[in-house]
Amino acid sequence: MLKEIEFYLDELYPNPKCELNYTKDYELLIAVMLSAQTTDKRVNSVTDILFKKYDSLEKLANADTEDIKQIIKPIGTFNKKSIFVGEIANYLIQNCNGTVPNDRKKLEEIPGVGRKTANVVLSNLFNYPAIAVDTHVSRVSKRLGLAKENDDVLTIEKKLMKKFKKETWARRHHQLVLFGRYHCKAIKPECNFCKLNTICKYQK
Q1: Cβ neighbours of residue 185 closer than 8 Å, sequence gap 6 or more
Q2: Among 14, 32, 55, 92, which one is most buried in terms of CB atoms within 10 A?
Q3: What is the pTM of this model?
Q4: In angstroms, rounded to a whole number, what is the distance separating the alpha carbons of residues 60 and 153?
Q5: How far apart are CA 107 and CA 79, in angstroms?
Q6: How many CA atoms lie within 13 A of 125 on its CB side?
Q7: At residue 204, does pLDDT exceed 70?
Q8: Rounded Cα gap, residues 166 and 171, in angstroms
Q9: pLDDT tens figures, 98-138
């Protein structure tokens, strides 16, 4: 079953990549933080404005929270996230010499940064083998029997790390995200066209 899943993911997404737009390390960190409970497309639309207006860590650190709030308002939960933007910028300047640290523990000490965000950043910026479990990865994993229905995100992450080879973790993460985003959707998944529908619990 696992081979079947891997083969299909490779067929659908031979070169999977993060869909968040960024040109600097801290831009990715902030974008991933902003992406919680919203879409990458919507995040890209607000960061395009945010990072052009505040084009350095120093400017973000000193930006008016109310202005940031207005810019990121379309993504939801913007009150808390607008505060995190400034706190992340300040933290990186004061504690990390203005660069995103290549260290999980240090990353998770940054305001607004949890395990999932750290995994995405480590994987994309530093080629660190990691599987970040977001809503898409969680849903797909449960439907395909890679995890149980009541598993939390950390349990799912550990199970996926056991099932997939370490050198493919980052790749599988991106593939599962894209598969969940465009095919195995929460509402109206494209089961009729899916080559995994015979092993899918949702289809059954």
Answers
A1: none
A2: 32
A3: 0.89
A4: 31
A5: 22
A6: 23
A7: no
A8: 10
A9: 999 999 999 999 999 999 999 999 999 998 999 999 999 99
Two tokens, residue 83: 């505060």
Confidence band of 68 (pLDDT split at 50, 70, 90): very high
Under 8 Å between Cβ of 132 and 108:
no
Catalytic residues: 116, 134
Q: What is the CB neighbour count within 10 angstroms for residue 53? A: 13
36, two tokens:
């919680």
Q: What does each C-alpha distance from 144 to 21, 77, 130 come to in angstroms?
A: 29, 31, 20
Tokens of 203: 């289809």
Count of C-beta atoms within a 10 Å radius of residue 191: 14
**Residue 132: CB atoms within 10 Å:** 26
Could you give the angle at the alpha carbon of 47 between the alpha carbons of 43 and 50, nearest 5°?
A: 145
Burial 4-25 (b: 16+ CB within 10 A, else e): ebbebbeeebeebebebbbeeb
Question: What are the backbone dihedrals phi and psi of residue 176, each rounded to the nearest 5 degrees, phi first?
Answer: -65, -40
Q: Give the CB-side neighbour count of residue 45, counting CA atoms within 13 A.
A: 11
CA angle 144-32-135, nearest 5°?
Answer: 25
Contact 125, 102 (CB under 8 A): yes
